[in-house]
Amino acid sequence: MTTVELKDVVKTFSSPKGKIIAVNNLSFQAKEGEVLGILGPNGAGKTTTLRMIATIYKPDRGTIRVEGIDVLENPLDVRKRIAYMPQEPDLIPFLSVEEHITYYLRFRGFSKKEAEKRCEEALRSFNLEKHRSKKPFQLSTGLKRRVQLASILSAEVPVIFLDEPTTGLDPMSKRNTWELIKDKIEDSGATILLTSHDLYEVEYLADRVIIINNGRLIAEGTPRDLRKRFGKSVKVVFEDPLIFDALREELMDVDGIKGIFQVSENAVEIKLDSLDRSINNLVRILASKELKIKDILTTAANFEDVYLEIIGNSGGDI
Amino acid sequence: MMDFKSMLSSLRVAISREVKIGMDLEFFLGTLFEPLIYVMLFGPLMEKLIGNVNFGGKEISYLAFMFPGVLTIIGINQGFRGAATFIQDKFRGGLETLFTLPVHRSALFLAKILGSCLRALIAMSIITLLATLMAKGLSLTLLGTLKSFLVNMSLVVTLASFMIYLLSKSQNPNLPLAISGILLLPMMFLSTVFYPESVFSGSRLLSLIVAVNPMTHAARLVRPFVYSTPLSVSTLLISTAYLSALAFVSLLLGAKEFARALER
Hints:
The complex is a heterodimer. By secondary structure, chain A is of the alpha/beta class.
């Protein structure tokens, strides 16, 4: 079942330099229980997209539905179904950890008694008991994030938005936050939309990924799919030193070859359209040129390579 | 019906949050300390210099004459400070989360205004208690006190709403401070808070400024309430209509812009 659906969504902002198109005809879906990672460089439109789904911004055009409810027609009903964790840990300086969680729940319609009960459970579950009376200035960024996650989870909503949940955290806190998200939130069965700059984070947490650049969707799939579709390259090692420019000239027009780079005096890295089809083509051509091949190695692209290639192909600045 | 019930429930929670985050050191120093200086220092010293003041044929002490003005100053102060919790929410974080909760934004806005009124009410009650003990010539009744509080609440509503309106459009959290720095003193001295209306009669321009100053209208209404002197129907109608209209328009503008406070 589709939980979040965007169709041809456009959002522009006015600036002194004119109109800025933040989101440009964006369409995608997130299914029930799925963790959807939203990747993209700075200014790609990730946060604007989340804010529109979370009813903070109104889209200029297009439709956004959460569990079938239109965000423009019935924002209050949408808000009953969502929880949003903003990029910055937005805790009010005068409220304690306990008060933050309790107010969050009371705003969600829980009675004072029920809110306090759930707050106790959340403090226990998120290991925040000894910090319950502390004010935000007494907490590290990692602990502030934990308070936000505890609030969101204790509300038990079907759709959760996490906007760069580990920004500003040290590696250890980052890892702890990932584990919290994995253990606590994924188990809740909620649909999660997660934006991030951290490719490892998205690969670790997300079932599926969409990549946005300049407000447009440029790629979509599971991290594994994307790795298969993009970033296919082979390293060819020759027995003798080669004349690189001549080889490049020979290969550049061959169908299925997207790029060729010299890596040493007798080795080149060749980017291919498709590993299966193009590699046969490549071997056939190299053999016909009477070049003696010592070795052919397929290089396992990591998700970062894939991401850089996709963004690069879309003409974006990273 | 259900929607109204949930709105009331949200409003209750939002007011409770406002009280919690709004009763800070700034409130106690900013709202209470300044009027205390007027009542305990400025008033008694001026009383020694000026003596009694004739108001509506009744001789009253200068401190008693100044007391309604002090209430009005509290109204103005609290009005300017009314956006303090909004500044917290918008510029230090909180508003993004609040705006994604199943709460009417108008309930959140109203809670901010009512929170300001509540803070003003506390401050006015303390000053009233003090003035009753110190000022000669006050004839305070419960109804008169409540009416005078209500008049000053209209100033709180007007200014707090207007500040939230401006801050919703602006990216500068220091805006209320800058505006109050420019307006507060002229508003106080170009009104009938410290001087009788007759002082300004020599200048048409000054009279005009004094006449449009909401503090003048507040003081015109409050004085008869606290001295138990007669209040003409025309003054009652004009000043009440003027203050109500200002409060109503500001409230509408503030609520509308508050709902869009995070739109760039």
